[in-house]
Amino acid sequence: MPKLIVQKFGGSSVANVERIQKVARRVVGYKNKGYNIVVVVSALGDTTDELIELAGQITSDPSEREMDMLLSTGEQISVALLAMAIHKLGKEAISFTGGQVGIMTDGNYTKARITRIEADNIREQLKKGRIVIVAGFQGVSSNQDITTLGRGGSDLTAVALATALQANECEIYTDVEGIYTTDPRIEPKARMIKAITFDEMLEMASLGAQVMQPRSIEVAKKFNMPLHVRSSFSQKSGTVILKEVTRMEDALITGITLNRNEAKITVCDVPDRPGGAAKLFKELSLNGVSVDMIVQNVSHTRKTDISFTVAKTNAHKAIKVTKKAAARIGAGDIILDENIARVGVVGIGMKSHPGVAAKMFDTLAQNRINIEMISTSDISISCIIQKKFAEKAVRSLHKNFGLG
Ligand code: ADP
Ligand code: ASP
Ligand code: MG
């Protein structure tokens, strides 16, 4: 049996015809080496953002079903063009939508979860010697509606297919050389990391390192599918993401993260009695708004403020729901702040080393950056700060933790 490789190419890797042709040449190169190949592609360049913008010109409150119908078209353009580019190189290739290759999901439009993959169609095509090209980011629900898997969801398509097909390798091609100690577009002194664990990558991705979708790392971890992140513009070897990395001693900090896609909502003067927070957050969850960080101040006055963060794309819905809930629990004003950012430090080493939080807060203080909220996990600490300080915060944390 030839080795099976799943290769995923992100939006910038297929942004125009020349790049699509370049991807085709790379894929054919692997075919010539004897591999069976499944290729997953994202929409061309910024197509998904442009489609969202287009919908926004018609309504601020589009039906989520129709959003999925719209957004899934981006990836369909890419798969067809890549198939043609491979045909031009004299190889057999065939493109499919997510539904056509049996990527079954629940009915949660815009953030659907994969329930199972019926990959017989792919296996048959591979047997015929064809290169199989699959539209990333999409699946089909049990009632035959097209669904999408959340932003960055082509990563998930690739990992899920690699797992279902028991691929020998899963490569994620993107526009940087691999996973860096922080976003190399913010800190040019960032270093590429040769190997990183699923846990560290999951934490970095969840805190905003856009390079991998967090859910794709969850699946890779669950099924122990090593991933190889590398550049579609070079032949360099990139980063492997795997279960365990042998290091003599864990580095204290692996990376610095930044997320500018959150907004902060503060509910003022919440009466300090049991049940207030429960009512507010229940209402948010019933309306499909995920809440991230939550801070409630200790009350000396029998009234308290509750602040929480939500994805910016959900902010207006969250405000609507919060206003209704606040009126019911007798709370006061509601303040929305969209000019925030979350900076984080991630590292397995912090489990056994005290002082990381102190060093982080000290670094922000030295730069006269005020901390508005703090959140911690086993292997990370993150702070909400004003957005205008975000890049300065990332660079100084990167330097002070010795990552440069
Ligand atoms: P693709 O279109 O290939 O899916 P993305 O734009 O989703 O690519 O992700 C790649 C981008 O992630 C990079 O261009 C980089 O700016 C950003 N990024 C953020 N944090 C990191 C990090 N720690 N290492 C590498 N890239 C990062
Ligand atoms: N095109 C989708 C997005 O921009 C999926 C992806 O690129 O992974 O979110
Ligand atoms: Mg991506």
Structure, briefly:
The chain is of the alpha/beta class and 404 residues long. The protein has helices at residues 17-32, 47-58, 64-88, 120-127, 154-164, 198-206, 214-222, 276-286, 315-329, 356-366, 390-400; strands at residues 4-9, 36-41, 93-96, 103-105, 114-117, 131-135, 138-141, 146-148, 169-174, 195-197, 227-231, 239-242, 255-259, 262-271, 291-296, 303-311, 334-337, 340-346, 373-377, 380-386.
Name its key features.
404 residues; alpha/beta; Carbamate kinase; eight-stranded mixed β-sheet; 11 helices; binds adenosine-5'-diphosphate; binds magnesium ion
Mean pLDDT across all residues, rounded?
Answer: 95
Bound molecules: adenosine-5'-diphosphate, aspartic acid, magnesium ion
Rg is 23 Å
The CATH superfamily of the domain at 4-175 is known as Acetylglutamate kinase-like
The end-to-end distance, rounded to whole angstroms, is: 44 Å
Number of helices: 11
Query: Beta-strand percentage?
Result: 25-35%
User: CATH architecture of the domain at 4-175, please?
Assistant: 3-Layer(aba) Sandwich
Strands side by side in the biggest sheet: 3-6-2-1-9-11-12-10
Question: CATH first level of the domain at 4-175: which class?
Answer: Alpha Beta
CATH-derived topology of the domain at 4-175: Carbamate kinase
User: How is the main sheet built?
Assistant: 8 strands, mixed
Helix content: 25-40%
Weakly predicted, low-confidence segments: none
Structural class: alpha/beta
Shape: globular
Number of distinct beta strands: 20
